[in-house]
Amino acid sequence: MADREGDPVSTRIAPSADVDECAQIGDGSSVWHLAQVRENAVLGKNCIVGRGAYVGTGVQIGDNCKIQNYALVYEPASLEDGVFIGPAVVLTNDYFPRAVNPDGTPKSAHDWEPIGVTLKEGCSLGARSTCVAPVTVGRWATVAAGAVVVKDVPDFALVAGVPARFLKWVGKAGVPLLAVGDGEFKCPQTGEMYIETDGRLRPADETQEEN
């Protein structure tokens, strides 16, 4: 972990950030004011942890991820490369939360088993959305602002609402795709083609490689 003096080839950690000495922060990453990164958390290269954000114990974060201000990433969440987490997003880790046991005694770390949220490559979570563990948000999927995700989100899906429901397909650029044929979709921004099969969407070049 780089020191807080600002090594230009390594990491940038704001003086008011709380980064545990056992956390691993990749080169080019930034942890901003009042953020907390707990012990054994791993951040990849070129990540951003915004003001007041929380990264829990042992959370695994890939390269080029952005965790915006006041987002709460509770352990044992796992983020692949290129994930975007908007402001005040919450990744939960307890499906049946209680402060006390049935006998009224306070719960300790030994009284429950954390369960994590998995975020696949390139997906985005809009501001103040919540993912209720255990769920997986697929590759390049988008969760709209304020949505509550209670079931897995397919690759390239846009979901919204409480609970979150499928609205349409989006491409890697994040914009809605245009239907151009039977099960065929095109990104209006990049021109990339996608194929829908059995309710799943994949880039056309991936489908061709399998054939």
Describe the protein in words.
The structure is a single chain. This protein is mainly beta and 211 residues long. It has one helix and 26 strands. Strand 21 and strand 22 form a beta hairpin. The chain is globular, with a radius of gyration of 19 Å. It starts with 11 loop residues before the first strand and ends with a helix.
Counting H and I runs of at least 4 residues, what is the number of helices?
1
Distance between the termini: 45 Å
Task: Determine the structural class based on helices, strands and strand pairing.
Answer: mainly beta
Stretches with pLDDT under 50, minimum 5 residues:
1-6
Rg calculated over all Cα atoms: 19 Å
Strand count: 26
Q: What characteristics describe this protein?
A:
globular, 211 residues, nine-stranded mixed beta sheet, mainly beta
In short:
This protein has 211 residues and is mainly beta. It is 3% helix and 31% strand. It starts with 11 loop residues before the first strand and ends with a helix.
